[in-house]
Design a protein that fits this description.
78 residues, Cytochrome c oxidase subunit 6C, Cytochrome C Oxidase, Chain I, transmembrane helix, transmembrane, Cytochrome_c_oxidase_VIc, mainly alpha, Cytochrome_c_oxidase_VIc_sf
């Protein structure tokens, strides 16, 4: 303990440009996450939904559906 320095000097933090550097980093991360989520949403949500709609309307007969609803009494004016 006899050779221990009386004061310890800490290096000063770099504050000049810190705000701009933080904004650049956060903006880069935000853009990257947005791109990843957009691509994932497109492949996992939109593509199956579009395929399901295409499959439904491939065999859909509007006139048959109208007649079925009319027979059930859904349209009182017809």
């Amino acid at each position: 303990m006899a050779n221990a320095p009386a004061t310890v000097s800490a290096t000063k933090p770099v504050l000049r440009g810190l705000h701009n550097a933080t904004i650049k980093k956060n903006l880069t991360v935000a853009i990257a996450l947005t791109a990843v989520v957009t691509v994932a949403w497109s492949f996992l949500i939109n593509s199956p939904k579009k395929e399901a709609y295409a499959q439904f309307y491939k065999n859909y007969d509007a006139q048959k559906s109208f007649e079925r609803m009319k027979a059930n009494g859904r349209f009182q004016g017809c």
